[in-house]
Amino acid sequence: MATERMFQIQAISGHVGTIPGRGTQREVEVCKYIDVSTCIGCKACEVACVEWNDHPFRETTFNNTYQTMPTTEWNYYNLIKFNEHEREPDGTLMWLMRKDQCMHCQDPGCLRACPADGAIVQYANGIVDFNQENCIGCQYCVSGCPFNIPKFNASTKKVYKCTLCSDRVGAGLEPACIKACPTGCLHFGTKDDMKQLAETRAQQLRDNSGFANAGVYDPQSINGTHVIYVLHDITKPELYGGLPANPVIPFTYTYWKWIAKPIGLVIALLGLLAVFFHYIFTGPKRPQPEPMEDEV
User: Which domain covers residue 33, as residue numbers?
Assistant: First the structure.
């Protein structure tokens, strides 16, 4: 993969042993900051994402909303979710629009769940990337993601998701969606800078716009993410298209490598030992003599 020449690798799915390039260079953590309060739902980011990733423009799905389709797809990494909300106490109607995409978790459930060596790579700068050539199509990453992001392509038997434009970032460019945003809703930089910018914006919403619960969505239940949001109401992230308030990696996918997999390997080893000692003490199975005619 060409990107690993540009980024230091932090973790690899299904991989044992040393990590290539560990300790040879320094990487700053990158971050995409999304201010939902300034999103106008123009969908320029959706178009830019499709074009940059060279995906065909697909038919949209009308479901009594301005949303392009119900969910992201294997060839549609970025989706603006539209949700109507009546604000208390006066019942003012609000459109809560949120850019749905991979969150590039600091503790990625997809990588933890994946058994294929090298199918998922987390770089030291926070980007979580998929290598489809190493994907075995088991879809464990789909179940392991608390944000329901990875999508399976039934034709290729591979899984796909947003890469945070790792090819552009590696060349010193910002992601394509950010380049296309006309309102300044999207920002890209280091994690520290984006977190500070987001906190400042949340403070503005609390002080000047009447959103007392405005805050920054950077869930610590997965040690933070490299895509963060400023929400009008940080206490109710579910209002923004089902954004989980406390995302967690399923227990079965978190510890299967450390519990179930070693136990399975031990059982397999014991089975091989049993076959070996049976051969040693009993010998190979020999053909039985044919019965005599007078015995028939």
Answer: 2-250
